[in-house]
Amino acid sequence: MTAPFLSIQNLGVTFTGGTRPVRAVNDVSLDVAEGEAVALIGESGSGKSVTMRAVMRLNPENRSKLEGKIMVGGRDVMGLNTRALSAFRGAEAAMIFQEPLLALDPVYTLGDQIVETIRRHEPISKEAARARALDLFDRVRIPSAKSRLDNYPHEMSGGMRQRAMIALALSCRPKLLLADEPTTALDATVQIQVLLLLRELQRDLGLSIIFVTHDIGAAVEVADRIAVMYAGQIVEQATARDLIRTPRHPYTLGLLKSRAHDAMVKGSKLDAIPGAPPDLANLPEGCPFAPRCFLADAGCRTGSIGIAQISEGHQARCRRLDQTALRDAG
Amino acid sequence: MFGYTLRRIIYTLPVLLGVSVVCFALVHISPGDPLISILPADASIELQERMLVLYGFDRSYPEQFILWLGRALQGDLGTSIATGRPVTTEVMRAVANTLMLASVATVIGFVLGCFFGFVAGYFSNSPMDKAASAAAVFGVSVPHYWLGMVLVIIFSAQLGWLPASGAGPGGSSQWKFDMEHLSYMVLPAITMSVIPMGIIARTVRALVAEILAQEFVIGLRARGLSEFGVFVHVVKNAAPTALAVMGVQLGYLLGGSILIETVFSWPGTGMLLNSAIFQRDLPLLQGTILVLALFFVVLNLIVDVMQSALDPRIKR
């Protein structure tokens, strides 16, 4: 395997703005190869979005502390100065947001926003930039693209807006696309269309994608690999196939069981994980999942839990993996 | 855009009608006989009746209103009881003076207010925010006639740098835009700018803080825009509301500057209103209020149209 395009090593993000520091991301390591799509799943507040924003250093600098190392295309993102950072954002790596209505400037037309972004990174004329914007709108299959360029965000439907957002993100031909719950705000039929579009663009353009979601179905649809986050840590990562077929971390097991899939029998009880995620300002010692884990023993509640390699590309942060393996066999 | 503007203009017609009814009614709802100030105390009954007929007060109210409105539409607001000159001339001269003063004051207030507001909003909860917010609170809460007098004491009486009152040599009719005349405007304009400065600063501070907290600002940074590029977007998002507040403030200053114009003897609408009230000069009072109300309506119209040009979400 060649060197990963994006490499996150031991990333830590602590928000220091409040009364107590909040440890939102804790020792996260994740590699994304060129042209690979990785899904980051987990419940709200597990640090998915914060991890993504850290890749572009978008978390407020004066209220957060970053640790670890982030390399994109051989460049150290942590070491970039302000000028290099803004040249990197949008051109090398681009981001798609959950709610395009909130993430687009409401008082500029979409065409103007795309043209502005292109001209920020490339010395081309307004006309050329607009022509490229039009191509992008066609590419993401926005009907009557030409007149849509002059629309304001509020004049479009949710699915159309998300397509426009994707067009904007792709406007400077980035190599890394960070998609922060791109389908969560959309209704079900539109979700699938947008997912398929993302998958297709990824294949055609050879993009590396990190795709944040809490929808396992969407993750399987788009991603080659899946990483599961809990309380600021990646608790398990594997290929999409391995993770769904042979999950090993107790949290992943619980997550998969709590899905309402089609095999569910009417009247049967939906399995849920008991308890609630820990307070990130006051993390328990040991494994953060221990208080909710059916396998936890005294050893899980002290020290820090290391990452165990299960097989090629499959790893989990758990010291009771022997138990989950047994359960699988039985 | 054109359709919206036309519709907004049509919407103002009922407002204008309402304003004229209120202005007309002013003469009749205010206590006392409208003619009491022009008739000698010992006027005979016949004289009173003759004056009543002469001024048209013997007719029914609707009839009087239509006659009055008809004349007003032709630019005739009657004759001032105190000076005997046409009200229109008096009011227009005062309006020109006030408009000049109020515009300068609003521009000063807007520029300073935006500056303080942006600084406070961008660095919210920092010492700079505290200082800028304190300046804004001072602007809103300081009694401006007091501030005017203090400025006169410091800059006119003590330092002798600026004239204390009036509109320059030769009175308001000789106004010229030269240093000598402009120096008369400095103190009243600064005093007058303090309130809009405070209000605009507080509005802009809240606006900027709110805009910066929105997700699209992260979106703009994620596209690689520089801090200045982001600032331009923030300004364009804040502009419609800031302009609306400025328009309303200009409207207030046009009519609500009685205290400042009196302190500085500035020959504007405030002073005109003041003297009209004290002399019970009802036609003059009526005319002044009508013209000021018209200005307010027109200003609001301009602000609305400008807002819709700046903020696409307002067009419906």
Chain-wise SSE layout:
The complex is a heterodimer of chains A (330) and B (316).
Chain A: E1 6-15, E2 22-32, E3 37-41, H1 48-55, E4 64-72, E5 75-76, H2 82-88, E6 93-96, H3 100-103, H4 110-121, H5 126-139, H6 145-148, H7 158-169, E7 176-180, H8 188-205, E8 208-213, H9 216-222, E9 225-230, E10 233-239, H10 240-245, H11 250-257, E11 308-311, E12 314-316, H12 321-329
Helix pairs in contact in A: 4-5, 5-7, 7-8
Chain B: H1 2-29, H2 45-55, H3 61-73, H4 87-122, H5 127-141, H6 144-158, H7 179-212, H8 215-222, H9 227-255, H10 258-263, H11 269-278, H12 282-310
Helix pairs in contact in B: 1-12, 4-5, 4-7, 4-9, 4-11, 4-12, 5-7, 6-7, 7-9, 9-12, 11-12
Shape by Cα distribution of chain A? globular
Please give the number of β-strands of chain B.
Answer: 0
Q: Looking at this structure, what is the CATH superfamily of chain B?
A: MetI-like
Give the CA-CA distance, first to last residue of chain A.
35 Å
Instruction: Please report the first level of CATH classification, the CATH class of chain B.
Output: Mainly Alpha
Summarize model confidence as the mean pLDDT of chain B. Answer: 81
Q: How are strands sequenced across the largest beta sheet of chain A?
A: 6-7-8-3-9-10-12-11
Number of domains of chain A: 2
Which fold name is given in CATH as the topology of chain B? MetI-like fold
Through-space gap between termini of chain B:
10 Å
Say how many strands of chain A there are.
Answer: 12
Measured on Cα atoms, how large is the radius of gyration of chain A? 21 Å
Helix content of chain A: 25-40%
β content of chain A, as a range?
A: 15-25%
Helix content of chain B: over 70%
CATH superfamily of the largest domain in chain A: P-loop containing nucleotide triphosphate hydrolases
CATH architecture of the largest domain in chain A: 3-Layer(aba) Sandwich
Uncertain regions spanning at least 5 consecutive residues of chain A: none
Structural class of chain B: mainly alpha
